[in-house]
Amino acid sequence: MMNADLSKYNVRTDLALEAQEMATQGQQNGQVPGVWSESESADGITISRMEIKDEQGAQQIGKMIGHYVTLEVPELREGDTTLQDKVATSFAREFEAFLKRIGINKTSSVLIVGLGNWNVTPDALGPIVVENIMVTRHYFELMPDQVSPGYRPVSAVAPGVLGTTGIESSDIVQGIVERAKPDLVIAVDALAAKSLDRVNTTIQIADTGIHPGSGIGNKRKGLTKEILGVPCIGIGVPTVVYASTIVNNTMDMVFEHMKKHTPNTDPLFGVFGKMEENERLELVKEVLNPLGHDLLVTPKEIDKFMEDIANVIASGLNAALHEAVDTDNVAAYTH
């Protein structure tokens, strides 16, 4: 198989699953050398696990070597609290597997970093999650003899964004890591997706860390093991998609719809119907960018959704990090 060059697509996505789909587009076996993947579905939740094993796989997918888990829940937008509880439980179990894989034991200390901007709703995931985390480090520092078994030292911080602090989030976190010396950093951030269907319905976990602002085209210093000196697990939820991507996806849906009604769509679409996806996307961007219309778009119900998904992630983290919290009943620990 020829090496895939994802740069030609120029599609901004933080999801490894979408990157894999683009890399395997048009292939019969759907496999990428150097990449292992599997998926399972139950109770309306699809869990996809992926491991990028080597540089060849990393180059073709366009993501770093490491493990990625994606939870897709199409009905998550409906606000069903029973489903949210199931998602939190599934998330907790998958996250526990990550902790075991990287050698984090039940007493290791953890720092949770909520990346993003409080004042911009689609970017406020990290700070809202931090607000709902069960922090315990101060108890271990001040009254260790009174801490019940089954808990570990957990601290949390929302460092803000460069535009409001004047300091890179990575630099702030580095300073905290040097003083607090956690065994693990967990970074939570809002992401950008390629597919409209995955906005507000998907959670990604990755042991490769996270790069703040990468999904919206901002090149920022990342939070990774190489930079921080300790393992860093990234958790993200896609909350935005580019207008150009929406237009391109809509064109795809129109093409597929019309093909169901007529075998010959050439008279309808002409040259547009014969263009590759990346060519159409570039054409759409050529039209939108000069007008300033290639906007970041988020659903209108984003306010309610951010509270719900932040509670799901925080509850799952509380259950995964503290043995005393029942993984099968994380709803009891939702704020």
- What would CATH call the architecture of the largest domain? 3-Layer(aba) Sandwich
Radius of gyration: 21 Å
Structural class of the helix and strand makeup? alpha/beta
Tell me the β content: 15-25%
CATH class category of the largest domain: Alpha Beta
The total number of structural domains is 2
Q: Any idea what the shape is?
A: elongated
Low-confidence stretches: 1-9
Kindly state the mean pLDDT as a whole number?
Answer: 86
CATH superfamily of the largest domain, please? HybD-like
**Helical region count?**
13
Helix content: 25-40%
**Largest beta-sheet details:** 9 strands, mixed
CATH topology of the largest domain: Rossmann fold
Distance between the termini: 50 Å
What is the string of helix and strand elements?
HEEHEHEHHEHHEEHEHHHHEH
- Number of strand elements: 9
GO biological process, one term: spore germination
GO molecular function: metalloendopeptidase activity
Propeptide: 1-14
Enzyme class: hydrolase
